[in-house]
Amino acid sequence: MTIAATMPAVRASELTLRYGRTLALDGVAFTLRDGVTGLLGPNGAGKTTLLRIVATALAPDSGQLTVLGADPRTGSGRLAVRRRLGYLPQDPGFHPGFTAFEFVDYVAILKELTDRRARHQEVRRVLASVGLERQAGKRIRALSGGMKQRVALAAALVGDPDLLVLDEPTVGLDPEQRMRFREVIAELGERRTVLLSTHQTEEVMALCQRVIVLDRGTVRFEGQPGELADLAAGRVWTSGAREPRALASWRTGSGLYRHVGDPPPGADLVTPTVEDGYLLFVDPSATHGGEDA
Amino acid sequence: MTGEEETPMGGLGWHVPDGELRRYADRALAPPLLWSTEAHLSACASCRGRLTGAAGPALADDGWELLAAELDAPVPGPIERLLTRVGVPEHTARLLAATPVLRLSWLAAVAITLTLTALMAHLAHPAVFLAAAPLLPLAGVALSFGPRVDPTYEISVVAPMHTFRLLLLRCAAVLSTTTGLSLAASLALPELGLAAVGWFLPALVLTTLSLALTPRFGPVLAAVAVGAGWVALVASTWSAGDAGPVVFVPAGQLALALTGGLAALMVVRLRRTFETPRRIR
Asked: Which of A223, A241, A240, A288 is nearest to A261 (CA)?
């Protein structure tokens, strides 16, 4: 069965949420299917708010939301979602003094695994799936940042959830840890729906089958990463000097300047990347025409 | 193979019957037969050999898994061991042991505070103790739930286990421990007789009231507001009678009980707001 043929794991329309006078989400609509979907956007775009709503940690002020076929507005719907959900918050906290095993064991109890033996088997399984079987007995405070993230991911994997919501799972990790994390997430995305937020366009390119660009509480793009890159076709060029009229202009490793925006006549156009397409959306002056909201 | 037979040592001995050996291999044997079978197996090579034949390699794999599980398994701390000893299920004890204020440091702080308050009650007025003791469970409950004090709060909220149930479990644990310590401290005021436990009802009421206000103001602000209100109430009614504040006389206690009942109704009514909180900070 192809990804496109499967039933949507999440369907959202007109989601709106305010924090006081701040409109955090403004009529957000999107669909999630099997595979990894990246939620891309600048700081303050509403990514964490949206992930928390999908994870049932927060209720929207208005709008429709269906998660794994259930309605999270009702008590039974919320419970049905939570039983099939794995959530990695942006800043996962740990009880001081817990070992990796103890923390995941604690989360497993919260996930209704009460039988001690079955629960411990599950804890060992998820710790092994993120490569932490040898660190199971270590205090979390003694683990590196990458390992702590893996412990939190292991906790999210308890119960083999159908939907994984990961809020910036690779932030603060070094390249090697990031690569290891990508491998794990890519593997997880083969059998379930994964929604992850990130600032990094290369992560979207490396991992995601689909991408949603969120900016100031609004979905600016939803589609495949390649389609996002294609939107910048004809609007990316290189030259030997900075271009002040471009939306973005920077010196690359080759010594040439790369520009995104409206090219001058005869410009040396180059193949756009996902980042180029993304820049068109997050820059306020670049959002005229061509958006797939 | 049953009954008495010659043992490898040359004497007569009992061997585990085949049926029981199979049930042991299937882990279906219950105590006390399980214990006697295990004791025999540890001493009888012949029966161990028969067990190997009856069970096959799967049992050995299971055994290694069990051993690994036991080695990895968390070692319960003193509070967790105490809870399981008094009949709390193992998984619930595990959850309670992670309650931020159920640590020995908190309990020690409560004990010291109660001791000092009891001393002050001797020096000043017994009502000092009755007024101060209810503030301890109030503080304990405020510090056992919410994103500011519980590092796993966000994960707890989206877990299938009801957040409200977890909150009540923690409240019950905090109330039980502080009540125990306060009862012990009450023994230092024998001259008050039964009136020495006059703090109990206010403790329940203040805690319930702060829970009712938590969805609106968050656990810390709710507890601070309720605590401040309590102190103001005690201070403002202090001169109303020789026995101290009127809240500790029967009429005052009745009014408190009614307030607590209303607060409990509010908590029940608001229980769903704990599951997708907007204002709990």
From this structure: A288
Q: Answer whether B151 sits within 8 Å of A87, measured CB to CB.
A: no
Q: How far apart are CA B220 and CA B281, in angstroms?
A: 8
Report the CATH number at residue A163: 3.40.50.300
Residues B174 and B249 in one domain: yes
**Residue span of the structural domain in which A275 resides:** 229-286
Instruction: Assign B4 a pLDDT band (cuts: 50, 70, 90).
Output: very low
Which pair of tokens denotes residue A13? Answer: 């329309």
| For A127, nearest residue in chain B (alpha carbons) | B72
Mutation site for B-interface testing, chosen from A90, A109, A139 by largest number of B Cβ within 10 Å: A109
User: Which ipTM was obtained for this model?
Assistant: 0.81
Which residue, A145, A147, A146, is CA-closest to A134?
A: A147
Q: Does B72 touch chain A (CB under 8 A)?
A: yes
A219, part of any domain: yes
Going from the first residue of chain A to its last (293 residues), give the mean pLDDT of each consecutive group of 10, the final group possibly shorter: 64 93 93 94 91 93 94 91 94 84 94 90 91 87 88 94 93 82 89 91 91 93 93 92 87 91 90 90 50 32
Q: Which residue has the higher pLDDT, B24 or A24?
A: A24
* Tens-digit pLDDT profile for residues B37-77: 888 888 888 888 888 877 767 767 766 766 666 676 777 88
| pLDDT for residue B69 | 60
Phi first, then psi: what are they for B230, rounded to 5°? -65, -45
Return d(Cα B56, Cα A60) in angstroms, integer. 56
In a domain, B80, yes or no: no
Would you say residue B7 has pLDDT above 60? no
Contacts of A195 in chain B (CB under 8 A): none
Residues B152 and B15 in one domain: no
| Chain A residues touching residue B272 (CB < 8 angstroms) | 75
Strand partners, A64: A13
Q: Is the Cβ pair B161, A114 closer than 8 Å?
A: no
Single out the residue in A205, A223, A241 at which a domain terminates: A223
Contact B72 A111 (CB under 8 A): no
Chain A interface residues facing chain B, Cβ-Cβ under 8 Å? 55-59, 72, 75, 78-79, 82-83, 85, 87, 89, 92-96, 98-99, 101-103, 105-107, 109-112, 114, 116-117, 119-121, 123-124, 136-137, 155
**Least CA distance to B92: which residue of chain A?**
A109
Same domain for A159 and A44: yes
Tell me the pLDDT tens digit for each residue of A132-159. Answer: 888 888 889 889 888 899 999 999 999 9
Question: Distance (Å, rounded) from C-alpha A7 to C-alpha A11?
Answer: 10
Token pair, residue A246, equals: 């471009």
Give a yes or no: residue A281 inside a domain.
yes
Element (H, E) at B258: helix B250-269
Q: Which residues of B touch A101 (CB under 8 A)?
A: 72-74
